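User: Here's a structure from my thesis project, written as C-alpha cells. My advisor, Dr. K., wants to see whether a designed sequence matches the one we expressed. Can you design one independently, without my sequence as a hint?
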C-alpha cells in the first residue's frame, strides 16, 4: 500500500451503512471466525518463548535424573510430605516436569543458565536482587532460590561495571602523625577563593596548626597570589610569631606545587606534603576549617557581603577560644597557657604567674599530644573497620569517574 497516496480518516459508524452491507454477505458462515486465536500473547508467554530452546531441553533432561524429582514422586505416591509444613498435594508431576505449587522445578545444573536468561535479557534488564527474584519466582522454583539469585546478581560483571556503586569500598585512613611539641610546627593550609571584593581582597589563606593546638590563622589575600606572596604571608604571620615550621600540608594548588615553593622549602629545610589527586583527606583539617569559616561569614555577613575581611580577626579569635573536639582544650590555652577574655568580667581576674604558666603549658601539650594519638587511632579503626585489605593479584573494579576513557557518551559509559 506504500505505492499509493492514501489518507487515513475516521468515519463514524452511523455513516458506514452502505459499506457494511456490501462487506457482509449472508451466504458466508462467520460463526467460526477468530476462534482459538490469541491476538496479543500474555507476558508469561513472551518470557517462555524468549528462553533458549536448548535450556528448556536441559531442564527436561535433568528433571528425569534429579534426586529431588524422584523423592517428590515417591512422596506423592505414598501421600506423605517431603518437607516440613509442605503438603504432598503441593507437588504435581505433568509430562515429565515437576511443579511445586504451580511453579516449575529447575534442577541444579540448569539454574544458572535460567537465571542468566531472565536477568540478562532485555525483559529482565539486569535488574537488582528483588526484581530478578520476582521475575524468576513467577514461573520457577527450587530450594534456596532467593540465596542463589542474590549471589548471582552480586557477581554479575555487567551490573558491577555499569551500575552506580551506592556502597563503595572505603579503605582505612592513615592519620598523619605528629611529634611536635611547639605550636605551628606542622601546618595545614588551604585557600577560600572567589569571595566578594572586600578591602581589596577576594580570598582567604587558612592556616591550621595541624600538629598540636588546632589553632588557626586567617589571612586575607588575592586569588592570583603566587608562591612568593604565600611565602611572604607565611613569614609575616607564622614565622614572626612561632618561628620556622617543620612541615606544610596542602592541596595541589599552583602556589604550593611551583618550582619556587619547592626551592624555598629546600632552602629553609621544611617538608611540603601535597595531597595526591582526588584524595582530599590529606588536607582534610584545613578543608573542615574552611567550612566553619564559610558558615561564620555566611551568618555574620548577611546583607553586607563586602565586609567579610573585617570579620576575619573576630572569626579567628572565635575559633581559637573554642574547645576542640580532639584535644578537649582551646587552642589559646595550648599556645599561651591561658585563655584571653573576650568580654569584661565582673569580679577578680586571674592571669597565672610565669612558673605556673609553664607548668600549665607543659601539661596541656602532653595532654594534647596524647589526645592526637588517641584520635588518630580511633579514626583509623572506625573508617577501616569493615575494610578487608586487597591481596596482590586480586581483581578489583576501578572507578571510571576520574578516568579518560574512549567512549562516545560519558553518560552511557561504564561506571
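Assistant: Designed independently from the structure alone:
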Amino acid at each position: 500500500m506504500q505505492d499509493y497516496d492514501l489518507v487515513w480518516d475516521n468515519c463514524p459508524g452511523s455513516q458506514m451503512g452502505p459499506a457494511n452491507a456490501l462487506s457482509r454477505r449472508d451466504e458466508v458462515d462467520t460463526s467460526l471466525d477468530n476462534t482459538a486465536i490469541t491476538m496479543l500473547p500474555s507476558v508469561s508467554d513472551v518470557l517462555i518463548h524468549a528462553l533458549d530452546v536448548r535450556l528448556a531441553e536441559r531442564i527436561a533432561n535433568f528433571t528425569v535424573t534429579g534426586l529431588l524429582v524422584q523423592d517428590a514422586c515417591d512422596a506423592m505416591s505414598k501421600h506423605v510430605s517431603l518437607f516440613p509444613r509442605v503438603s504432598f498435594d503441593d507437588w504435581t508431576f505433568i509430562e515429565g516436569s515437576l511443579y511445586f505449587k504451580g511453579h516449575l522445578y529447575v534442577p541444579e545444573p540448569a539454574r544458572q543458565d535460567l537465571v542468566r536468561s531472565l536477568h540478562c535479557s532485555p525483559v529482565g534488564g539486569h535488574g537488582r536482587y528483588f526484581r530478578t527474584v520476582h521475575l524468576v519466582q513467577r514461573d520457577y522454583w527450587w530450594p534456596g532460590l532467593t540465596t542463589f539469585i542474590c549471589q548471582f546478581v552480586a557477581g554479575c560483571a555487567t551490573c558491577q561495571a555499569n551500575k552506580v556503586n551506592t556502597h563503595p569500598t572505603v579503605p582505612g585512613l592513615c592519620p598523619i602523625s605528629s611529634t611536635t611539641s611547639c605550636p605551628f610546627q606542622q601546618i595545614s593550609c588551604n585557600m577560600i577563593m572567589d569571595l566578594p571584593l572586600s578591602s581589596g581582597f577576594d580570598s582567604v589563606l587558612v592556616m591550621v596548626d595541624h600538629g598540636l593546638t588546632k589553632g588557626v590563622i586567617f589571612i586575607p589575600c588575592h586569588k592570583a597570589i603566587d608562591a612568593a606572596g604565600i611565602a611572604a604571608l607565611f613569614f609575616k604571620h607564622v614565622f614572626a610569631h612561632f618561628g620556622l615550621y617543620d612541615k606544610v600540608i596542602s592541596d595541589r594548588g599552583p602556589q604550593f606545587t611551583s618550582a619556587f615553593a619547592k626551592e624555598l622549602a629546600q632552602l629553609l629545610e621544611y617538608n611540603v606534603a601535597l595531597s595526591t589527586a582526588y584524595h582530599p583527606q590529606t588536607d582534610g583539617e584545613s578543608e573542615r576549617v574552611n567550612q566553619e569559616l564559610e558558615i561564620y561569614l555566611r551568618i555574620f555577613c548577611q546583607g553586607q557581603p563586602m565586609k567579610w575581611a573585617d570579620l576575619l580577626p573576630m572569626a579567628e579569635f572565635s575559633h581559637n577560644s573554642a574547645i576542640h573536639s580532639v584535644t578537649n582544650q582551646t587552642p589559646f590555652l595550648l599556645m599561651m597557657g591561658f585563655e584571653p577574655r573576650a568580654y569584661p568580667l565582673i569580679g577578680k581576674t586571674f592571669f597565672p604567674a610565669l612558673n605556673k604558666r609553664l607548668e600549665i603549658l607543659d601539661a596541656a601539650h602532653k595532654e594534647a599530644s596524647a589526645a592526637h594519638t588517641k584520635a588518630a587511632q580511633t579514626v583509623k579503626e572506625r573508617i577501616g573497620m569493615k575494610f578487608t585489605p586487597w591481596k596482590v593479584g586480586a581483581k578489583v573494579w576501578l572507578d571510571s569517574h576520574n578516568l579518560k576513557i574512549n567512549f562516545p557518551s560519558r553518560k552511557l559509559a561504564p561506571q
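When you compare it with your expressed construct, this may help: The longest strand covers residues 186-192.
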